Fold this sequence. Notes:
By secondary structure, this protein is an all-alpha fold. The protein has helices at 2-6, 9-14, 17-26, 31-56, 64-86, 105-118, 120-135, 144-164, 166-181, 183-203.
Amino acid sequence: MNFLVILPLVFVMIGGPQILSAIFLATSEDWRRNSAAFVFGASLSISLVVTLAYYLGSGVRQGGSNRTLQLLVLVVLLAAMVNVYLKREQSEPPTWMGKLETANPKFSFQLGFLLMGFFPTDILTSITVGTYLASHGDPLWYATGFVLLTLLFLAIPSLSLVMIGDRAETLLPKVRTWMNTNSWIVSEIVILIFVAITINNIVG
Length: 204
């Protein structure tokens, strides 16, 4: 059951600039190598953070101090939702996304490693997975499904090009444009998932 509990966190990992970056790279000139490098970099950083969190959190047990921390996290998340909504008209993708259409494999690898490993929501999610498994006495390999499913979602834009070819070439730019225009909605959904998870942990 603990294995199934952490799988929904995959959607937190990919929401926002993460999946948008994967789409951009899938529409770049050297999309095969760029996409592969991006996913490979992501696999290393996600696995690293989850593993470190697991072993550092091996002595953690749920208690009153943990509940207090989760309440503070909930307050911060709700404030973030309000802030994103108020700034929705100003919402724009990060400036570095302008480089993705002309990216090379080295840049793609670095982006995958840094974005998926150390982007605020991603590092928090990976730490949550590692410490959750450790605190419940579960083996580290339970995180394998979480890591692999995250990587699969990141690979979907490039896999769609391999599988459906021309239709994907037409569809992906439209998806990219929609996500650029509505990035604040994606951010709200990601934060809302975190809110639901936090409330569940507090109540449970």
